[in-house]
Amino acid sequence: MKIKVGIIGATGYAGAELVRLITSHPQAEVAAISSVSFEGKALSAVYPSYIFLNDMICEKADTVVDKSDVIFAALPHGLSQDLAKECFDKDKIFIDLGADFRLESEEDYKEWYGGEYKDKELHAKSVYALPELFRTQIKGKKTIANPGCYTTGVPLALAPAVVNGLVEIVGIIADCKSGATGAGRGLSQNAHFTDLNEGFHPYKVACHRHTPEIEQTLSHLANESVKITFVPHLLPVNRGILSTCYARLKDGVTDEQIRKAYEDFYKDEYFVRLLPQGVAADIHNIKYSNFCDISLHTDSRTGTFIAVSAIDNMVKGAAGQAIQNMNILFNLDEKTGLDIIPPAF
After folding, report:
1. Among 151, 166, 194, 335, which lies 20 to 30 A Cα-Cα from 220?
2. Domain boundaries, the chain
3. Average pLDDT in the 40-57 region?
4. For the residues 61-83, what does the mean pLDDT come to?
5. Quick one: fold of 150-312?
């Protein structure tokens, strides 16, 4: 019997991507969808690519919860907490693609998102679910915080170096570039075609909301507090995030040590592809897939380690990782429904 999946916020970019991926999942099926903006309308009326493939009508969120075994919420921050509580009380798995359960510190959530935790006990029972780093903590949980896009690409790029103490944790810089879908489906001035096309600019410099989430993950890996400089940029492309991360090498650390640390750390991780020496990570090569490509570089003149990761922000950075977490929770192979080969061109 297939897992019945409900998707709340199905007409946003991440929600529509969930529909696309679940439709091809051999062990799951979309049972119900909802959308505040398009309630009563068919998904295929919003996205014509789904005509005859998914013509489901967008229903109310409560109906979606009742019809489903697992509920994915692809909503802006501040809108998931009540849904999470409803799902928990009904013994349903809730996977949140938003930010409401990502931060352990309520003070950080207040500072960066302007909200508060409505149910502190529920937050304490939730889990931050970046599988390659926290897999053992995910099984058996009901409330899942699915990491964001930058907050997946940056920690995966740096984890082996930080865990093995190969770099200084002071002065880490994450210089990241994202496709326009990262801003969501809602309109903003810098996402208009004439502003975005043939342009390239940083935004929310040193004040992006993903900063505390990245620092939280790196601090767990380092077993001490980590602060970073994080600067995102907007690329004139639809998909992809390239994260170029800089850290100071500790004295005596060699290229061979670094590569071995990465090979050992990711040797059993299907979705992390450590690229051969001399090959640089490129968003072109991970498009539509759940892969994270990582390339390693050093500047021997300055003693700087450079790790570059490439992910599809809509898949590994959102919907694909959420399905990977669902697979873990239901004891399925993590690749189920996600063994997608990126297009060559």
Report:
1. 335
2. 3-147+316-329, 150-312
3. 95
4. 96
5. Dihydrodipicolinate Reductase; domain 2 (3.30.360)
